[in-house]
Every structure is written in structure tokens, then in C-alpha cells.
């Protein structure tokens, strides 16, 4: 009882334990059945690949699937891994360099950042039986195929437990699915036609303020298909459709941030933020500075690198993009002017351990003689 009290508070597993522990192998009477939607087995590079996962138990009421598997000891979310004769397929590249960049900016101050967990968030649970619990995913969220070939994909999840919801300590069980073989073909003409078709449809249906009311699901589907293409052509379309005004249902920022063509993404976005119709938020400028530094000085983001050694470079990178926005204010449209001015002035008190503003007051006063309305 004392051990349980130490690791369980109000029915939630201590996060540290859940991260350190390993899931247990699932017994033979609970299953994870994996397949592509409609059983399709041949897809193009960059094509959306809908997949299904069915959780099934031979005995009703014995097993529970927890939507937030992190609440279980050893819990892990649903995941799909794919491999071929050439090796494992990399998942889409995460854009996880922000924390390191913030650490570099704050290094002379010995600053540290922290983030709080979402404690108390409700979790949905499902009792499993032989009829099965159907879940639907996009394989593109887990695997980014680079070349044509035959691939074998297997799903896994440690989000099932035998312990009812009202109990305290709950151990995750690791489920592994059946393998699914896919054939990926490379057809540049298909990729081009898809990019043109999806982009034209998105431009027609999804570029107005009433998208949420009238075309939300259709626009979301189109945006996904454009993002998954991951070609230079689709990247250019994503940058063009990103205006910062929240028009449309589906932002393209994540696709741009994780593009397979980071040099092109940085070049296109650097040009885009200066356009008259774009409203730029502070985090956009910070993102560009991160990408720029990541491309030019990748060693700064290594775990063993000394953050202070790269501080001045990080500050200069950020100032570069703030100045770029400032230089474009004179041609911004009236409907986005106020937001852009606020973003520029956001950095007027940011010193980043330099003892002076990122952009000197005299320089700011020339760019923005009068504050935003």
C-alpha cells in the first residue's frame, strides 16, 4: 500500500514512473488488427494512406483501452513502424529545436524554462470485447516513404490494461499487430497532377472566412493531402496559402516546418513574410531564426554543445528576421498592418541577456514612428 501511495495520486500514475517503466507483453486473448482502409496495397509516393486498427478482446470486460496511454505505467501511444530491405523508414521529422534555441538565447543569464503538464485532463476509456474497437489513422503521420519499393508495416500500442478505470496502479500491455505489406510507386506526373488538383480545390473552397461553417471537413482533407505530398511543388503551395490570418480551417505551418526540403522552406518563408497580405506572429520569426541556425550551424543543437558558445549567433539570427519584418511594414495591407506592427514591437523589450533591446529604440522609432492602434 505504501508503494502504491507513493506513485499514485488521485488515480493518476506519477509521470516519472510511466516514462521509466516498460509495458508488459499482452496476453494472447487481446489483439490489435492492422490494415489499410479498403485493403488497398499500392500507393504513390506522397499519397494519403488511410489505415485502420481494431482492438479486440476474446473476453468482454477484461481489457480497457485508454485514449491517453501515458496515464498507464509503461504506457505508449499507438505507433506504426515500416521497413524494407533497405532498412527502417524514418517517421516525419519533428520540429523540436525550439527548446534548444531558447536555451541558447538565455545561456548568459543561466535561464531555464519549464512547462507544466495538463493534469486533471479527462481520459476516455473503452471496454474491449470480440466485436472490436475501430480506430482510424493516416499512415503518413508515422512514416514518410522516400523511395519506391515494398514495405512491411506493423502497428504497436501500449494503451490497454486489465485494471478497471476506478483502480489506482494500472499497468500497460504492449500490443503488436499483424504485418501489412505495401507497394510504393514513384510517379512524378501523378504527384504534379495531385498537387495542382488539391491546391486548386483548396484555393477555391478554403480561402474565405466562412470555411469553418461550410467546408471544414473537405478543406481539412485537402490540406492533409497537400501536406503529405511533401514535394517542392506542394511546399510552394503551402507557403503561398499561409497568410497568418487564420483564414481556412487548416494551417500548413507544420508541413512547412518539417518539409523534406528545409533550404527551400526557409527561402520561401523568408520571402513570404515580407508580402503585403501576410500577418506575421512572433513565433514565426523565431521559427525562421531556428531553421536558419539549424541549417548553418547544426552543431549548436547537439546535446553536448555548450549553449553559451552559440548565444551571439542566435541573437543575430533572430534580429535578422525582426528587421526583415520591419522593412516590409511600409507595404503591408491595412487589414494586417496592426498585427505586424505589434509583432515587430514585441521584441522592443527583449534583451536576451544582452543588456540592450534586440532592436535599438532609435532604429525602432524610424521603422514605427507611431505605435499600433
Percent in helix = 25-40%
What kind of assembly state do the chains in view correspond to?
A: single chain
Tally of strands: 14
CATH architecture of the largest domain: Sandwich
Examine the coordinates and then state which fold CATH places here, giving the name of the CATH topology of the largest domain. Answer: Immunoglobulin-like
Structural class assignment: alpha+beta
Give the number of helices: 13
Radius of gyration: 24 Å
Which short descriptors sum up this protein?
373 residues, alpha+beta, Immunoglobulin-like, three-stranded antiparallel β-sheet, nine-stranded mixed β-sheet
In short:
By secondary structure, the protein is an alpha+beta fold. The chain has helices spanning 2-7, 15-20, 98-106, 188-205, 211-214, 216-229, 232-241, 253-257, 262-272, 282-296, 311-328, 334-346, 361-367; strands at 8-9, 12-13, 24-25, 30-36, 42-44, 50-57, 64-66, 76-84, 87-88, 125-127, 133-138, 149-161, 173-176, 180-185.
Amino acid at each position: 500500500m505504501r508503494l502504491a501511495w507513493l506513485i499514485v495520486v488521485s488515480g493518476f500514475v506519477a509521470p516519472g514512473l510511466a516514462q521509466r517503466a516498460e509495458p508488459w507483453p499482452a496476453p494472447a486473448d487481446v489483439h490489435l488488427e492492422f490494415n489499410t482502409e479498403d485493403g488497398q496495397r499500392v500507393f504513390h509516393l506522397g499519397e494519403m494512406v488511410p489505415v485502420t486498427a481494431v482492438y479486440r478482446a476474446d473476453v468482454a470486460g477484461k481489457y480497457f483501452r485508454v485514449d491517453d496511454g501515458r496515464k498507464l505505467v509503461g504506457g505508449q501511444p499507438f505507433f506504426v513502424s515500416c521497413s524494407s530491405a533497405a532498412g527502417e523508414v524514418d517517421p516525419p521529422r519533428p520540429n523540436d529545436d525550439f527548446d534548444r534555441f531558447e536555451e541558447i538565447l538565455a545561456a548568459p543569464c543561466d535561464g531555464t524554462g519549464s512547462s507544466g503538464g495538463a493534469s486533471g485532463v479527462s481520459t476516455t476509456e473503452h471496454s474491449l470485447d470480440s466485436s472490436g474497437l475501430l480506430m482510424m489513422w493516416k499512415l503518413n503521420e508515422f512514416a514518410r516513404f522516400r523511395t519506391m519499393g515494398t514495405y512491411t508495416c506493423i502497428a504497436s500500442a501500449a494503451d490497454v490494461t486489465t485494471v478497471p478505470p476506478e483502480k489506482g496502479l494500472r499497468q500497460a500491455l504492449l500490443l503488436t499487430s499483424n504485418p501489412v505489406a505495401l507497394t510504393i510507386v514513384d510517379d512524378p506526373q501523378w504527384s504534379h497532377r495531385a498537387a495542382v488538383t488539391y491546391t486548386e480545390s483548396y484555393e477555391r473552397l478554403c480561402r474565405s472566412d466562412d470555411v469553418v461553417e461550410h467546408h471544414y471537413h473537405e478543406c481539412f482533407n485537402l490540406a492533409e493531402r497537400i501536406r503529405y505530398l511533401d514535394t517542392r511543388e506542394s511546399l510552394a503551395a503551402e507557403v503561398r496559402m499561409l497568410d497568418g490570418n487564420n483564414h481556412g480551417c487548416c494551417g500548413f505551418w507544420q508541413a512547412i516546418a518539417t518539409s523534406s526540403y528545409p533550404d527551400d522552406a526557409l527561402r520561401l518563408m523568408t520571402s513570404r513574410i515580407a508580402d503585403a497580405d501576410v500577418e506575421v506572429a512572433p513565433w514565426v520569426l523565431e521559427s525562421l531564426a531556428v531553421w536558419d541556425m539549424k541549417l548553418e550551424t547544426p552543431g549548436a543543437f547537439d546535446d553536448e554543445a555548450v549553449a553559451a558558445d552559440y548565444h551571439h549567433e542566435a541573437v543575430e539570427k533572430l534580429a535578422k528576421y525582426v528587421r526583415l519584418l520591419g522593412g516590409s511594414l511600409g507595404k503591408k495591407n491595412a487589414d494586417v498592418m496592426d498585427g505586424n506592427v505589434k509583432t515587430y514591437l514585441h521584441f522592443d523589450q527583449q534583451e536576451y541577456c544582452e543588456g540592450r533591446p534586440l532592436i535599438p529604440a532609435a532604429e525602432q522609432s524610424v521603422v514605427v514612428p507611431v505605435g499600433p492602434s
